[in-house]
Design a protein that fits this description.
The structure holds 4 protein chains of 4 kinds. Chain B is built from 18 helices and 34 strands. Chain B is of the alpha/beta class. Chain B has 5 domains: 3-144, Rossmann fold (3-Layer(aba) Sandwich); 154-243 and 333-345 and 513-583, FAD/NAD(P)-binding domain, CATH 3.50.50; 258-318, no CATH class; 349-510, FAD/NAD(P)-binding domain; 593-648, Alpha-Beta Plaits (2-Layer Sandwich), CATH 3.30.70. In chain B, helix 7 (160-171) crosses helix 8 (202-215) and helix 13 (417-432) runs parallel beside helix 14 (450-459). Residues 1-8 of chain B have low confidence and may be disordered. In chain C, 51% of the residues lie in helices and 0% in strands. In chain C, helix 1 (19-26) crosses helix 3. Chain D has one domain (14-138): 3-Layer(aba) Sandwich (Rossmann fold). The radius of gyration of chain D is 17 Å and the shape is globular. Chains in contact: A-B, A-C, B-C, B-D. The interface between B and D is large, with 76 and 64 residues.
Chain lengths: 291, 667, 197, 163
């Protein structure tokens, strides 16, 4: 199966390691992936708060472009790594389907840029693709360095299963857990797995953002996690990069590696740290792997 | 009738009577316009309006016109015939003409209540009236045939509702068959310790009733049995009852339990249904000490002999009365009854369907019914409230509306949860002195002494938080939360979010219709609401009747209800059934089919059409003939008859043709 | 009038009776009017603890027409759109979308709290992305801090430096290639939607 | 025939639809729709029959003949028939009739059969609104051109004084 890959802004910036590591393991798994030409920002969770129609139009432009890029009439697998990008495109699509007038308006707007949207796009999340297309067995088969003894807290964050749970259980998703277990690691019982990291609040209102991330990190430590695995650049950024500020704010030393699930896969596949962007981590993962 | 005959010249003289129904119809239908229109219709002699046609003055209008104007056909334009057709037929008869010279036009349910524009409504009402007028001209005098009613009754379901209905009818001398699916009667009430708001013990008021059911000469109790088929019609139902094998000869067993003692399983090791698995039983067991009938049964799924064929069968030897019978087979009993009372009850909501409440995940999260057993003196802990981890709770949270008032589970309010939650709060507080918190959306205590009970609880120091619990988790934020279940909720009366750590959580689950309500409904040929509750004939005027004559409903199978309401409804259903039986006969709607011998070609097309084998072929005459007593009046044979020899009273081809022309040709 | 003597009574003339209906339409849902004030939204909301009005209260205020209070509240800007409330609401009220609808009204009527980082960031992001078609994290943070609280630069300088060194941040302007008038011209699309009702 | 006369919208075409509803399920559902105040299009006139099995093909043809633009049949869901299987009989006739009507040039959408149980008041609303809209789009059915046979009524029943 072919995938049109939508990176989104973060994966070219703060989330670079996510792109690097995912493309690396995708290559290992032999997934045919090509980047979407001239993609634009999805508008994230913010743009909708200013102008909803334009927000949907921005997403629709990407959907239209992906249909351009996969001209035959087969369904297009639109792969968005970032959870926010994944949801924004999914929401735009769902809202247009629910509301014909809105759809007409958006399609009309696209026409001004000689674009059309037929609606044959299927928006996919990497966990969905890995677990359901590649399959756990295939994922297992490539493991050369099992992550024996590594205790992982799989953090799905909000938007993977909310408001739409298209491929996993909304209250208790398990795809990442199954995937991580396939690497030989142990996943801890993690009831906060879909709790919010605060998104952009960390940047705008640090006190609020800090508390949300403090709760997650503290509980993950309490439950004996060696590392938190994420599937979202913003979760990763919030959980990892502010640990010093959080520690000083709550007078409690917090030092917990936060890596992308794809980096953990890469490690177990024996892919080089550089290819996986491990050097970009604030909190190095290597020590935890020594266990 | 002399007056009538003088005034009639063989031509129909139709009277049209339009009802305002207060403003129900008048608001949407221009009555004056409609009256003027009706006056212009063929054969209409008089057209009148009245505020409430169903009232006495309204009915007298009709009778007066019949006598004075020689009206010989009556059309009433008002509500649905399913509502008031009998009323106006009676009025017509009182006037002195045959009651079937009457036709109703439904301009309320089918017009004024479902149409927004007044012009449209008036137009539609005119069409329906025209249809009725055209049709009624072709009505013919008919007589109702009477069929005797079988004096026996069937009660389905042995909970408090079924028991109440059965006893009421048996005491009045009716022969009652009480069929219960479970091995014992008593239903959910038998599992309760106390009942709200009086806190009298459930057993003390229920078990005497259970034993009098067992002892009653007029009651045949078939437990561990299910109705599998119902044929016939009001007054004369033929019922098939499946009696499941309990592998014990019921008539021999005296419930001494020696077989249970003797079972090769020295210790009970299988989840005990009656206690929701809070205790264990053996493969051969008595459901609970006061079980009625007091007869043990064997569970083939857990019994070694049934699973392996190899067992010392110590139970057989232990029974002096040789009641144990491993060869027992399921058998079908057939009975004839005149009326049926359905009291099949409800099923509790499965709390696991709301994952964020942690039921089946955290051992100390219980469903309210489990707590009913825990606080019960005859329960698994002898009434001591001990949690699965062996500890006594110091703090308890009771969560209301679990599986109620929730679009994702059940939209409706289950009606009993607020009160039983208060009851449990009282009992738990009384026995453990724990801090008890009630989390409610709205406190609903309508009922005698209910609000007072709520007040009593507040006085007792039970905490009340108005807010629907968002989640129950085991991750602590503070030292006191460590090792506790943390309830996260907005205290909506203060407007702040609270985290309340407790040892034990009670989920007050709502009531649901049985999973197989749909199948049961079909067996008895009645209707269900979307939620699966059995549908009453009329929400106010016929709350225990169904759309199938002779079949009545009582208790929670009709909708969530507490014990007082169940008992009241059971009494109502019982008296409805007895009213039917004591009358001795039922008058059948004369809408039966008949064959016009001169036209019938004897092609036999109709014969296989009849679901009741009411049509037979008469060899010598070479024609078909319909047995009116067997015919139920569906008219399928009439529609099939190629030569129009078959016709149906009240629904002849020409009556329907006229109605079609009527509804189409005037507006 | 003296601050702490603000009267709390509400007169009908101070309310906007159309506010509820308008908001419901903007939020794709009449379910708003089915709210039973159970507080599940507030209970599930991870940031409710910082809000001036809990989400439940906002719903009630919207229905009652307390437009001024709602549009000026911090609550609507604190919503991180994690959708917990939306999926847990027993009446299927799309609370997250209600919050979005309120943010939009606040922007339209220009009544959002001044120098309040969230709304500032929102507008900066909107401008940046509408113009270039892509976000440039570095530039966004820069304009946000300079427009709200420049001290943040110091606070996060070391972190910023690390991000730069690790190649996780830069200050160059990202943008799409599609030229004006050419296929895929984003401006053309967005322009078409200006003043679409 | 007054097909062309419009109701609310000036002289826009408002179809007439005759519905044959069985007494036990669909007629009751229509009553429930009323009790629940489910407002729907006013274009349907309901003729009550005891069972959809009573539906004589003649009724349908008659209705079209008399100027109906559509005919709707409502019966109990399969397995729910008050008379065991009248609705199956109706279904068979429905299919046969559909063929014939096609031959007469009457469009598919003008003739519809629906299973609606006593508790489905909302379905009555949905089905009627749908059908009215569809028939409205089809426009009036014009059979007037063909001369119309009138059934010869039997002897007017003597007004017996039966009680």
């Amino acid at each position: 199966m072919n995938y049109i890959y939508y990176p989104g802004c973060s994966l070219k910036g703060t989330g670079r390691a996510y792109e690097e590591s995912f493309l690396a393991i995708a290559g290992a798994l032999g997934l045919a992936i090509e980047e979407l030409n001239d993609w634009n920002c999805c508008g994230a969770t913010t743009y909708m708060g200013i102008d909803e129609k334009k927000a949907f139009a921005m997403a629709a432009r990407n959907l239209a472009l992906s249909e351009e890029q996969a001209p035959d009439d087969k369904p297009v697998n639109f792969l968005a790594l970032c959870s926010a990008c994944y949801l924004v495109h999914l929401k735009a699509q769902t809202m247009m389907d629910e509301n014909p007038n809105l759809k007409a308006t958006i399609i009309g707007a696209l026409a001004n840029a000689q674009l059309s949207y037929q609606g044959r796009v299927k928006i996919r999340h990497p966990l969905d693709v890995l677990v359901n297309d590649a399959g756990i067995d295939k994922i297992k088969s490539l493991v050369v360095k099992p992550l024996k003894g590594l205790k992982v807290a799989c953090h799905y964050g909000c938007l993977v299963v909310r408001p739409y749970a298209t491929f996993d259980d909304q209250n208790n998703p398990t795809s990442m857990d199954r995937l991580i277990q396939a690497l030989g690691a142990e996943t801890i019982e993690w009831p906060l797995k879909t709790r919010c990291c605060g998104g952009t609040l960390m940047g705008t209102i640090p006190d609020v953002g800090s508390r949300l991330n403090y709760i997650l990190l503290k509980e993950a430590k309490r439950r004996g996690a060696d590392v938190v695995a994420t599937a979202c650049p913003l979760c990763q950024f919030n959980l990892e990069c502010f640990q010093n500020q959080i520690s000083s704010l709550y007078g409690e030393p917090i030092h917990l590696p936060v890596a992308y699930f794809s980096q953990l896969m890469g490690i177990s596949y024996g892919i080089s740290n550089r290819q996986l962007g491990m050097q970009r981590l604030f909190v190095p993962l290597q020590p935890s792997l020594a266990v | 009738m002399s007056s009538t005959e003088q005034k009639t010249d063989g031509q129909p003289r139709i009277g049209v009577y339009v009802c305002h129904c207060g403003i129900n119809i008048a608001l949407k239908v221009d009555i004056t316009d409609l009256i003027e229109f009706a006056k212009g219709l063929p054969n209409v002699t008089v057209a009148r309006e009245y505020k409430f046609m169903c009232s006495d003055p309204g009915q007298e209008l009709i009778q007066k016109d019949i006598k004075e104007l020689g009206i010989n056909r009556v059309v009433v334009a008002s509500c649905s015939p399913l509502m008031h057709e009998p009323t106006f037929r009676r009025a017509t008869a009182k006037g002195g003409i045959n009651q079937f010279f009457f036709q109703m036009a439904n301009i309320r349910e089918h017009v004024s209540w479902v149409t927004s524009d007044r012009g449209d409504a008036t137009k539609k009402a005119k069409a329906l009236v025209a249809g009725a007028v055209r049709r009624v001209a072709y009505h013919t005098p008919l007589e109702r045939s009477k069929v005797p009613v079988n004096a026996n009754v069937l009660v389905v379901g042995g909970g408090i509702s079924g028991i109440q209905a059965a006893l009421t009818m048996a005491d009045s001398g009716k022969r009652v068959y009480l069929v219960e699916r479970e091995p014992t009667i008593g239903g959910y009430m038998a599992k309760f310790d106390k009942t709200f708001p009086t806190l009298d013990c459930a057993a003390c008021i229920l078990t005497p009733k259970m034993s009098s059911v067992r002892a009653h000469p007029n009651i045949t109790l078939w437990s561990y049995s299910e109705v599998v088929g119902v044929d016939g019609y009001v007054g004369n139902f033929k019922v098939k009852v499946k009696r499941k094998p309990r592998y014990i000869k019921e008539e021999l067993c005296v419930g001494c339990n020696q077989c249970v003692e003797a079972c090769i399983f020295k210790e009970p090791k299988f989840a005990d249904e009656f206690n929701f698995g809070l205790s264990k039983r053996k493969p051969i067991y008595m459901p609970f000490p006061q079980a009625t009938p007091s007869v043990v049964l064997i569970d083939p799924d857990t019994c070694i002999f049934f699973k392996t064929g190899k067992c010392k069968q110590t139970c057989i030897k232990a029974c002096e009365r040789n009641a144990v019978d491993f060869d027992q087979k399921e058998k079908i009993e057939e009975i004839d009854v005149g009326a049926i009372v359905l009291a099949t009850g409800f099923k509790p909501f499965d709390a696991a369907r709301i994952p964020q409440y942690g039921y089946k995940k955290y051992p100390n999260v219980y469903s309210s019914l489990e707590i009913e057993r825990l606080v019960n003196a005859s329960g698994p802990t002898g009434g001591e409230i001990i949690m699965r981890d062996g500890k006594k709770p110091k703090s308890v949270g009771i969560v209301h509306c679990v599986g109620s008032r929730d679009e994702k589970t059940n939209r409706y309010c289950s009606r009993v949860c607020c009160m039983y939650s208060l009851k449990l709060a009282h009992l738990v507080h009384e026995r453990t002195h724990a801090e008890v918190y009630n989390f409610y959306i709205d406190m609903r205590t309508p009922g005698k002494g209910y609000e007072e009970f709520y007040d009593k609880l507040m006085q007792e120091g039970v905490h009340f938080v108005r807010g629907r619990v968002a989640e129950i988790r085991d991750w602590p934020m503070t030292a006191e939360e460590v090792g506790k279940l943390v309830i996260r909720v907005e205290d909506t009366l203060i407007g702040v979010v609270r985290r309340i750590p407790v040892d034990m959580v009670i989920l007050s689950v709502g009531l649901e219709a049985h999973a197989d309500a749909e199948d049961v409904r079909r067996i008895f040929n009645i209707s269900c609401s979307h939620e699966g509750w059995f549908l009453e004939r009329h929400p106010k005027l016929a709350p225990v009747s169904t759309f199938t004559d002779g079949i009545f409903i009582a208790g929670a199978c009709q909708g969530p209800k507490d014990i007082p309401d169940c008992v009241a409804q059971a009494g109502a259903a019982a008296s409805e059934a007895m009213a039917l039986i004591d009358k001795g006969f039922v008058e059948l709607e004369p809408n039966t089919a008949y064959i016009q011998e001169t036209i019938c070609s004897g092609c036999k097309t109709c014969i296989p059409m009849c679901p009741y084998n009411a049509i037979r072929y008469i060899e010598d005459k070479k024609i078909a003939q319909i047995n009116a007593t067997l015919c139920k009046g569906c008219g399928t044979c009439v529609a099939a008859c190629p030569s129009a020899a078959a016709q149906q009273n009240l629904f002849t081809d020409e009556q329907i043709f006229e109605e079609i022309e009527g509804v189409l040709n005037y507006v | 009038m003296h601050e702490q003597w603000q009267r709390q009574i509400k007169y009908e003339e101070e309310l906007d009776p159309t506010f509820g209906q308008r908001t419901a339409e903007m939020a794709h849902g009449e379910q708003l009017f089915s709210c039973i004030q159970c507080g599940t939204c507030s209970g599930t909301c991870p940031v409710a603890i910082y809000m001036d009005y809990t989400p439940r209260r906002v719903i009630a205020m919207v229905r009652a027409g307390l437009k001024k209070e709602v549009l000026n509240s911090r609550t609507i800007w604190l919503c991180a759109s994690c959708y917990s409330c939306t999926v847990e609401c027993p009446k299927k009220v799309r609370i997250t979308d209600v919050m979005y609808a309120l943010k939009r009204q606040a922007i339209q009527e220009n009544v959002h709290p001044k120098r309040f980082p969230v709304s500032v960031m929102a507008r900066e992001f909107y401008k940046l992305v509408s113009k270039n078609g892509r976000n440039s994290e570095g530039l966004l943070i820069f304009s946000l801090y300079s427009k709200t609280n420049p001290l943040q630069f110091l606070k996060y300088s070391t972190m910023g430096l690390r991000l730069l060194l690790q190649g996780r941040m830069n200050f160059k302007k990202e943008s799409i290639q599609a030229k004006k008038g050419s296929k895929g011209d984003l401006q053309a699309i967005l322009k078409a939607l200006d003043n679409v009702k | 025939m007054s097909n062309e006369q419009g109701t609310k919208t000036g002289n826009s075409f408002e179809p007439k639809i005759v519905a044959f509803f069985c007494n036990w399920c669909t007629y009751t559902a229509a009553d429930l729709a009323g009790v629940s105040r489910f407002v729907y299009e006013p274009n349907v006139r309901v003729v009550r029959i005891m069972c959809s099995g009573r539906l004589d093909p003649q009724f349908v043809l008659k209705a079209f003949r008399e100027g109906a633009d559509g005919v709707l049949i409502g019966g109990c869901h399969p397995g729910d028939c008050h008379y065991q299987e009248g609705n199956y009989k109706a279904l068979r006739r429905f299919y046969l009739l559909k063929k014939l009507l096609k031959q007469m040039g009457i469009e598919d959408k003008r003739f519809r059969l629906e299973w609606i149980s006593a508790s489905e008041g909302d379905k009555v609303q949905k089905v009627i609104n749908e059908m009215v809209e569809q028939v409205r789009n089809l426009g009036p059915l014009r059979l007037e051109t063909i001369p119309k046979p009138h059934h010869t009524p039997s002897q007017q029943p003597a007004v017996a004084a039966g009680k």
